[in-house]
Amino acid sequence: MKQLDGKIAVITGSTKGIGKAIAKRFLDEGAKVVISSRHDANIEKALAEMNSPNVAGKACDVSRYSEVEALIAFAIERFGALDILINNAGVAEPFERIINAPLEAWYAPIETNLKGTYHGCRAVLPYFLKRGKGKIINMAGAGTGRFNTPYISGYGSSKAAIYRLTMSLSEEYKGTGVEIMLLNPGMVRTEILGLHAPPPELKKRMQTFEKVLDIFGQPPSVAAGLAVKLASTWSDGKTKVFLSALSRPRSQWLLLSYPFRKFFGRIDKSHY
């Protein structure tokens, strides 16, 4: 029996990168999945790639509450129920000092990351509470733990706020059968890093940034495996759980193993 047999999940921002990796892994584990993106073209491309009757897609801008409500309703109508929501959609502002960037750049991660996560939680909670069960998995990131986020303070602020939102809601709905949890996917080479067209500040620090990515970067399959664990029966009754692809033991292992991985050419430089 697969870990997610019979489960139905909505994953926002899931036509690329980490979200797509999670969606694929969920399908492999027996779940039915609804993917989303702001753009229909991205959805059609991802659906064609996954090529499964157990996946459907709907356009959704998570910064708009009505669209998140419609996404939840679509999943329930399409597959008859909903068990898991992963608030994955996320963006980061260009790597820049705040006084050199437009105001809108800082607002963008607040609108998508923080408001999008809040919208997802608010839209799905009435349904989960009525059923007496359900799992909400929010996405942490840089800014959640011990790392500061210079030059991407909007992104870092949004992720720190998502941490506090998740822990607050976990307390509010403790004992209801709804598990509200947090996942840090770690460092993954996706377009959110802006490596395809680095702004001036990032160009200055590109050598150091690439070294950090070489050491701590991982494929999205690591985060996908943790997402399956959180979505499975393993987390039943364990609200407020926080799993990280860059936990202290794993970070130490990545650091210590780096010279050997570099020597044997096993540094993953793939972009996802």
Neighbour order of strands in the largest sheet: 3-2-1-4-5-6-7
Uncertain spans: none
- Mean pLDDT reading: 94
Number of strands: 7
Q: Looking at the structure, what is the overall shape?
A: globular
Q: Hey, roughly how much beta strand do the residues contain?
A: 5-15%
Supply the number of structural domains. Answer: 1
| CATH topology (level 3) name | Rossmann fold
Q: What is the straight-line distance between the termini?
A: 29 Å
What is the helix fraction of residues, given as a range? 40-55%
Secondary-structure element string: EHEHEHEHEHEHHHEH
Backbone CA Rg? 18 Å
Q: What is the name of the CATH architecture?
A: 3-Layer(aba) Sandwich
Q: Please give the largest β-sheet.
A: 7 strands, parallel
Q: What structural class should be given to the helix and strand makeup?
A: alpha/beta
Question: What's this entry about, in short?
Answer:
This protein has 272 residues and is an alpha/beta fold. 48% of the residues lie in helices and 13% in strands. It has a single domain (8-203, 218-247), classed as 3-Layer(aba) Sandwich (Rossmann fold).
Give a description of the structure.
The radius of gyration is 18 Å and the shape is globular. The longest helix is centred in the middle third of the chain and has 29 residues, at 103-131. It has nine helices and seven strands; from the N terminus they run βαβαβαβαβαβαααβα. Strands 3-2-1-4-5-6-7 form a seven-stranded parallel beta sheet, with helices on both faces. The mean pLDDT is 94. It is α/β, with parallel strands linked by helices. α1 (17-28) links the parallel β1 (8-11) and β2. The relative contact order is 0.14. The two termini are 29 Å apart. The protein has one domain: Rossmann fold (3-Layer(aba) Sandwich), CATH 3.40.50.720.
